[in-house]
Design a protein that fits this description.
By secondary structure, the protein is of the alpha/beta class. The chain folds into two domains: about 210 residues, 3-Layer(aba) Sandwich (Rossmann fold); about 180 residues, 3-Layer(aba) Sandwich (Rossmann fold), CATH 3.40.50. About 45% of the residues lie in helices and about 15% in strands. The strands form three sheets. It has an eight-stranded mixed sheet with strand order 3-4-2-1-7-8-9-10, sandwiched between helices. About 40% of the residues are buried.
């Protein structure tokens, strides 16, 4: 098969989507498929061949000033037509709803090419790009983002989710396209093998030799709830417990300041980013893995810890109970509760005599997430989708400028993203106001008239008939924007 994968991130980025997309592409190539990946042209050459995968870049807006992994790739429909004509894919696999993914989704329909969309985010769908503790984000922005995602997913031929919990979440939010749970998988052979002596590995990372090491590996962003883990440290009774934190993110400095304010400097160390090839050694150097995040659609780092045979403490939320079976290969704690997490960390320490048993349970549970199973599941889904939709030879189609300007899919995509960018800017401005830095619940005064204006604006986005009324439609939208911004006095 010829598979075209589109993603806004790819290795060497170390976020979950980048790791999965890279593993998927290389795994498909290993099975004999022809794979091309389109990624944003941010610090990448135009075209490279990496482990058999063709990596092609496309124009993108660099938004790393918001988040280190954020960029928005885009392409006009005549460019997408040319890319499809050049590669002639049997199937297109989208990893996110970026503008270029939206364009490929629309053009693929015309070429009768099946489109699969994998949904990676958990319930915190705004993370890590917006402040989740903002009232404005929760009440005004999140519903818009969910509506945007549902519109995108419901246009795909099939949707894949990394866990049963993630699939259920999408269906509850209104996805009516068939959803198939497929684990992101893990290369067991890379993690479960004989390694150096644990003491030697601890010396390698500069870790204490005489402590029970609990480790967290992942992004240090708001939705990962690493602050809950740090707040649990002064509540732990066992003085032999030592916390290792590996990773970076928007909350790195905040978390280090929190450690200082709680006076637990001698109970924790920050390692920063760890090279991908050293991650298995880090797991092996430690005794227990901890995942405090409560919005995980799967958690690749938890899978990797299981593959290393580690006992795990995890939040009792979303997909984590699918991997951590309470009292079998670890413990589940009440999400967001430092007191309960501290209790479970003490329980784990007191259960050190059962760590070998828990290790065996982790290895047993993770077998169903073997990456070869993931590749097989996607191959079967690809074949099913291709069989359901006959794919004719792509037509050479290079529409003139006026044609794509009149295309309502293009205009609607631009309007959607313009709305999200404006909301993003408003949110970023609002979260930097002094009142939001003060103790207590953030206060954003939005009167009922503004809320009514915003609802009217969203209704316009849903109902406007752009094919026949482009100019009038855009004029109405910009007028609504002006009313909203004037009401907010921004």
């Amino acid at each position: 098969m010829k598979i075209l994968i589109i993603s806004h991130t790819y290795l060497p980025a170390l976020n979950g989507q980048a790791v999965f997309t890279t593993n998927l592409a290389e795994g498909l190539v290993h099975q004999g498929h022809h794979v091309r990946v389109l990624v944003p042209a941010i610090d990448r050459p135009k075209f490279t061949l990496q482990n058999g995968v063709e990596i092609q870049t496309i124009s993108a807006i660099d938004l790393r000033f918001i988040h280190k992994d954020l960029s928005l790739a885009f392409a006009f429909q005549f460019q997408v037509d040319k890319l499809i004509l050049d590669f002639q894919p049997d199937l297109i696999h989208l990893q996110d709803p970026s503008p270029v993914s939206q364009t490929f989704l629309n053009v693929a329909k015309r070429h009768h090419i099946p489109v699969l969309a994998t949904h990676h985010p958990g319930p915190a769908i705004w993370a890590p790009y917006l402040p989740g503790n903002s009232s404005f984000v929760k009440k005004m922005v999140v519903p818009v983002i969910w509506s945007f995602f549902m519109h995108y997913l419901n246009k795909a031929d099939r949707v894949a989710a990394p866990s049963r919990a993630a699939g259920n979440m999408l269906e509850e939010h209104g996805v009516h396209t068939p959803v198939k749970p497929i684990s992101c998988g893990v290369h067991l052979e890379e993690f479960h093998k004989l390694r150096q002596n644990q003491l030697v590995l601890r010396e390698k990372f500069g870790l204490p030799l005489d402590k029970k090491l609990y480790v967290y590996v992942g992004r240090l962003d708001e939705e990962k709830k690493v602050d809950v883990l740090i707040k649990a440290l002064p509540l732990i009774k066992d003085s032999s417990i030592f916390l290792v934190i590996a990773g970076t993110g928007l909350k790195s400095q905040y978390l280090q300041d929190l450690v200082t304010s709680l006076k637990v400097d001698k109970k924790v160390t920050f390692l920063g980013n760890i090279q991908r090839e050293n991650v298995p050694d880090l797991y092996s150097a430690c005794d227990v893995f901890v995942m405090p995040g409560d919005v995980e659609s799967l958690s690749i780092s938890t899978l990797e810890a299981l593959a290393c045979g580690k006992p795990v403490i995890a939040a009792d939320a979303m997909a984590l109970p699918e991997m951590v079976h309470n009292r079998q290969n670890g413990f589940l704690f009440r999400s967001g509760d430092p007191n309960n997490l501290a209790l479970k960390m003490d329980w784990m320490s007191a259960s050190s005599g059962r760590w070998g048993e828990m290790s065996s349970a982790s290895l047993r549970i993770v077998k169903s997430h073997r990456f070869s199973n993931t590749i097989t599941a996607y191959e079967q889904l690809y074949n099913q989708m291709i069989a359901e939709k006959a794919v004719p030879e792509p037509t050479r189609f290079f529409p003139p400028l006026a044609r794509w300007l009149e295309n309502y899919h293009f205009l609607f995509t631009i309007v959607q993203w313009a709305a999200l960018v404006v909301i993003l800017i408003i949110s970023l401005i609002s979260q930097n106001r002094p009142v939001l830095a003060a103790p207590g619940e953030p206060v954003i005064n939005i009167n009922p008239e503004v809320i009514a204006d915003i609802k009217h604006f969203l209704n316009v986005l849903k109902q406007i008939d752009l094919p026949n009324h482009q100019a009038n439609g855009l004029q109405i939208i910009f007028q609504d924007f002006k009313i909203i911004l004037n009401s907010l006095k921004i």
